[in-house]
Amino acid sequence: xxxxxxxxxxxxxxxxxxxxxxxxxxxxxxxxxxxxxxxxxxxxxxxxxxxxxxxxxxxxxxxxxxxxxxxxxxxxxxxxxxxxxxxxxxxxxxxxxxxxxxxxxxxxxxxxxxxxxxxxxxxxxxxxxxxxxxxxxxxxxxxxxxxxxxxxxxx
Length: 155
Known about the structure:
Elements: E1 8-11, H1 13-19, E2 28-29, E3 32-33, E4 36-42, E5 45-52, H2 55-69, E6 75-80, E7 83-88, E8 93-95, E9 100-103, E10 105-106, E11 109-110, H3 115-133, H4 143-154
Antiparallel strand pairs: 1-4, 1-9, 2-3, 4-5, 5-7, 5-8, 6-7, 10-11
C-alpha cells in the first residue's frame, strides 16, 4: 500500500502488541476500528496523529489548557469530512507501512484532509517535535524509543 501524507488510515492491532506502550490510545471501541489517524510521511517513518469524534471531551481539555497557559498547542478541533473532530497531536506516534491496516474511506473513496488543515497540522506537529528536541516533551508516548524500534524493524 502506498501511504501518503494527508490521508486518514487505520492501524493493525499487531502494532500495539509489538511496541507495548501503555501511553498509546487503544485501537478498538465497541468492535470498530478506532481511531483514524492523520498521517505524515517522513522518510522511513510514518507519523500517526489520532483523530477523535469526542469533541466535547477534548474541548474541555483545550479550555483547561488555555485557562492555565493561555493557549493549547497539543489538540485542535477542526472540521474533517463535514464533522468536527479533535486532532490529538499530543497522542502522535511513529510507525511503518507494514502496520497500516487500511486507508479510511467515505463511500469507498479515501478520505483526504483539506490542504489548509494539513498545513496547520504539519506546522503544529513540527513545532512539537522542535520543542521536544529543546527539552519540552508534549507527547504522551515515548516517541524516541518507538522511532528506534520502527527503524530497526524497517532494516
